[in-house]
Amino acid sequence: MENCKKYAEIAKLQGETQAIQNHIAENWEKRAATNRTIEAIQEQIGEARSGKVSDLEAEKQAIKAQKDKLEASKNEAMDKLNALQSQMIQVTKDARGIILSMSDILFDVGRATLKTDLMTSLAKIAGILSVYQQFDVSIEGNTDNTGSEEFNMTLSQQRAENVMKFLVEQGIAETRLTAKGLGMTMPIADNSTKEGRQKNRRVDLVITDRTQKVK
């Protein structure tokens, strides 16, 4: 009888031991599954980070390539504009951009009608602007101090507008152009001399790179 009790206790202990072992094994399996899940997530994070870095690097390279392309295009345009330098057109550069100063000999005295030589020069300029779309143009009419302020302001505005109209007729979008008459307010030479007055009678095309305005 006593032996039966001992066997029963042993069996009970064995059962409890087995249950504990099963519980431990189950926990180990859960822990292993958890570790596998964590490893999989970490791998996904690593792949995502790697992909993101690759995407950012590709984007940086694309931006650099675009900047290089714009810079090369700008340099080409400047070379072509500099080639327009002549007795009638002076090409300079300042903080605003490239300045094409057209002599008043391209207009009849006191008139705003474009002469043939001026139209020929403007057609060349329009050809350059049509290729290099990043450039905008501010057309500025200027006079010397001969005559009334009102007359000179009106004349300079008409000349600037006629230049703008011609460029539009050559296919340049009006949104890229502005025209304003400055009259005698922006002299570049001494109005007390004949030579100075001749320099002041001009139409300036101020050519700016639109892509440089956005930083």
UniProtKB/TrEMBL annotation:
<dbReference type="InterPro" id="IPR036737">
    <property type="entry name" value="OmpA-like_sf"/>
</dbReference>
<keyword id="KW-0175">Coiled coil</keyword>
<feature type="coiled-coil region">
    <location>
        <begin position="53"/>
        <end position="94"/>
    </location>
</feature>
<feature type="domain" description="OmpA-like">
    <location>
        <begin position="94"/>
        <end position="211"/>
    </location>
</feature>
<dbReference type="InterPro" id="IPR050330">
    <property type="entry name" value="Bact_OuterMem_StrucFunc"/>
</dbReference>
<keyword id="KW-0998">Cell outer membrane</keyword>
<dbReference type="InterPro" id="IPR006665">
    <property type="entry name" value="OmpA-like"/>
</dbReference>
<dbReference type="Pfam" id="PF00691">
    <property type="entry name" value="OmpA"/>
</dbReference>
<protein>
    <submittedName>
        <fullName>OmpA family protein</fullName>
    </submittedName>
</protein>
<dbReference type="InterPro" id="IPR006690">
    <property type="entry name" value="OMPA-like_CS"/>
</dbReference>
<dbReference type="GO" id="GO:0009279">
    <property type="term" value="C:cell outer membrane"/>
</dbReference>
<keyword id="KW-0472">Membrane</keyword>
<dbReference type="InterPro" id="IPR006664">
    <property type="entry name" value="OMP_bac"/>
</dbReference>
